[in-house]
Structures are given as structure tokens and as C-alpha cells.
Design goal:
disordered N terminus; five-stranded antiparallel sheet; alpha+beta; 19% strand; 382 residues; Beta-Lactamase
Amino acid sequence: MSQADTPPADDTRKTTKGKTATMPNQRSGLSLNIFERILSTMIAVALIPLGGLVYISGYQHQKDWRQNVNLNLELTANALAARVDGWVDTNLRVLRENAALPDIVSMETARQKPVLKAIQGAYEWSYLVFTVRPDGKNIGRSDDNPLTFYGDRDYFKQVVAGNAVGQQVVIGRTSGKPALILAGPIRSGTGQVDGVIALAMHLVDISEAVIGTRIGTTGYAILVDENNKAIAHGRPQRISQTLQDLGDHPALRVAGSGAPVVFQDEGRRVVAFARKTSLGWTLIVQQDYDEAFAPLLESRRNALILMAVALILVVVVAYLLSRQLARPIGELTRVAEEISRGSFETRILGTERRDEIGALARAVERMAISIRMAFDRLRKKS
């Protein structure tokens, strides 16, 4: 090969347009030097187990707290359901016992009125106690309002049809407000239904008497009948003037399943649990998700803060250690380059170290002495 055909000895060559092209032995943009490799390795080694530990412990804590919240809602629902059942039993017992009194069985207005007044006075949540003949006409009342017709009411039809209990959520004809009517049969000595005795109660009064218990700051209970109409509400103002149909409440879809449900309500996440009562009603217990899971959310925030602090500490320590390891190697590399250029007076650092880097520094030092002695011999010969 002629001298004209010999490629240049340096790392660059001219392209056809006169621009400089980089030869393959130059460092790629994706390659890492030893400092970067040590740093990234140390960070990965430290963070992978730390992240795994935080994730596993956080997952277990979240699972345990969910079970705790679910159990708390279930226990609260069971306690309130027992309270509702006891309240219902009290009212039905009042109806049964008084329906058997001779004055009530007489179906005479004058004889019934004192008894009905006494019942209303004994149970503060009732605003009216009354009786109805089988043809629907009102016979006795605990108030002084005119007698009226109740034959079109469902609770009356249920008792006349043979049911032991009649119930209905209506707008009361006497008060004009949402009310619950519980009714029972008045039977003659032969067992025939001679009439109906009923208790009328405002829904607001029922709410205060039965499910007025608050659950934390945001939690409350709701009681609905078989037609999903509200009987009692933890926020009584919602049922003080109108009947509320809660058929679209998400908790009703899982009532009796033993599982809670999480849904959106007025822009807030809510967790709820529902269960049936002995009369076929449904009791819903609900609470804002953020309040119910406040300890879990706080624990999660603390875990993230701890993770961030640990990340900063790991990066700082890894940076310092990586620099401590990579710096001597880089220094020895610089010294070796200077020796290769004939500079033998460069001071070699790290020869006093008792590790591998110290051994490498001493080897470079011996190499420099050997090369310098070889050059000296060559000079003397020449």
C-alpha cells in the first residue's frame, strides 16, 4: 500500500463534504463512566429492597385497615338494627296489647278516645293514635280533629287482608308531614277483624329516637322501608318536609351480602354498609371515606415522606461513596496518560492505601519507574 493510501493515524477523518466524523472508539452517548455505574448500582441496590419493603408493609396495612373499617361499620349497623328491631317490637306490642282492651274492641268512639290519648302520651314519638272500621271509616282519635277516611291507605288494606302488621310511609293527613304508620288488627272474641288500630309518627321524631347516633364526624345511618322510602335519616332535615325515595342508593344493591360499598356522593367518596331488619326494612350505615380511612391515609403519607427522605439519603451516601471509589481510579488514569506521554514526574496519589486501589497506585508507580529507567538506558546507549 502506498503512502497516499494509508489512513490517518488520529481518531477523525474527513467526510466527502469536509466535515469531521467521529471514529467508533469515541465514547457513546449512552455509555456510563465508572462513577455513574457505581452510583446507579448503589442506588438500585439500596432502593429495590426498600421500595419492596414499603410496598409490602403498606399493602398489608391497607388490607388490615380495610377489614377494620368494614368490621366497624358492620358492628355499628348490627347495633342500630337491634335498636330498630327493639323499637319496632315496642310499638307492635303497644298495638297488640291495647287492641285487646275491651274499650278498643267495643269500636265506640267515646270509650276508645281516653285509651288512645293515654297511648299517645306514653310514647313521645307518636303524634296520633287512631282506629278505623273495616269499611275504612275513622272511629277513634287521640286528638280532637274531625274523623276522616283511611280506607285508601296501604297499611289499612294490609291489616284487613290478614297481615299481622300494616306499615306505610306517607304524608300524614293530619300533620301534612312525612310520617310512618304502623297498624295492627282489632279482633273480636271469635278472631274476626273488627277494625284497625294505628300509630302515626313523624319521620323526624323517629330519626331522633332510633338512629340519632353519629358515626364519627361525617357518618350517620338511614332506615328505609321495603319500597326504599326513607323512614329515618341521620340528617333529619332531609325528610322533614317531603318523602325521600332512596331506591338508587348504592348500598341497597349489596344489602345482605355482608360487603361494604364505596361510592361518590356530592363530590365526596363514601363507604357504606347495609343490612336487613326483622320487619324487612334496610338499615344503611355510611361514613366519608377520608374520615373512615384517615389513619390509613395518614400512614400512607408518612410512608411516602419516609420513602422520599430515604431516597435523598441513599442518593447522597451513594454519591459520596461512588465519588470516593471512582475518584482515585480517575486520578490513576490521568497519571497513566501523562506517563504514556513521557511525563515521569507526576505525583501518584493513593500509594499509601491498603486496598486494591492502593495496590494499583503502587503498580503504576513501579511502571513509571521502570519506563523511566528504560528511557535512561536508551539515552546512554545513543
